[in-house]
Specification:
Layout lengths: L3 H4 L21 H26 L12 H10 L3 H9 L14 H8 L2 H9 L14 H8 L2 H9 L14 H4 L3 H13 L4 H25 L13 H5 L2
Length: 237
């Protein structure tokens, strides 16, 4: 059976597949938020380094970043030597910030192909999800980074991953060459419109199943969670 590594080398042999039904009104709000966040982090780190240079200290102290901050900051700077050093010193490639963003997410936004390859070679999860359920493939597809899309698919990226807005990577891709790659791979994997619809409806179906189980156990459906909402109110959103 062909492997993911074999897949992209055979794409040119496949006939152009019919365009799958997709949401043309795909939202880019989350991608813009990610880019703004990355830019903000870069600016903050720049200001921090500038401030530290101005400080007149008698005894130099080595700044010790929290593990996740160190890896994310090095990735934002596209500092492959620092990223490599951290990974070789047992830093997990899947460390994330408070928004759930991993270094792989960030590098897929900024198109840092070399670091993406490095992270994946150290076992980074190609299907890591942030707080909005965006995977690195969502980010790369939205930004039209075709090479990163190919690399992620080679490493098992889920073509049917659904984010919090109900969008799959192909829904968010407006770059035609990149979209052709995604759709060709979907066809190669035998993904049908029926399967797409099934995966898109999975979160709602899971909620229905949870409610059914709670009813069967006689549990109160109006219990308020940490966000101040009940399971019943969630089902009406």
């Amino acid at each position: 059976m062909d492997t993911h590594m074999d897949l992209l080398t055979e794409l040119h042999l496949l006939d152009k597949v019919p365009t799958l039904e997709r949401l043309r009104a795909a939202q880019k709000r989350r991608a813009q938020q990610l880019k703004k966040w990355a830019q903000y982090e870069k600016e903050m780190q720049h200001k921090k380094r500038k401030h530290e240079k101005k400080r007149n200290v008698v005894c130099s102290k080595k700044v010790s970043f929290e593990a996740s901050v160190a890896l994310l900051e090095a990735s934002l700077r596209n500092d492959i030597e620092e990223v490599c050093y951290l990974l070789n010193n047992d830093f997990s490639p899947d460390l994330c910030n408070e928004d759930g963003l991993t270094a792989l997410h960030q590098c897929c936004i900024d198109n840092y192909e070399e670091i993406v390859t490095l992270l994946l070679s150290h076992g980074a999860n190609a299907n890591a999800k942030d707080n909005e359920l965006w995977t690195p493939l969502h980010a790369a597809a939205t930004c039209g980074h075709i090479n990163l899309v190919k690399i992620l698919i080679q490493h098992g990226a889920d073509l049917l991953a659904v984010n919090a807005d109900g969008n799959m990577p192909y829904d968010l891709c407006e770059d035609e060459p990149t979209l052709d790659v995604i759709e060709t791979c979907m066809a190669y994997q035998g993904i049908t419109q029926e399967k797409i619809n099934e995966m898109r409806a999975a979160p709602e179906q899971a909620m229905v199943d949870d409610i059914s189980e709670m009813i069967a156990r006689g549990e109160d459906l109006n219990i308020i969670d940490a966000q101040g909402a009940s399971l019943v109110s969630h089902s009406h959103i």
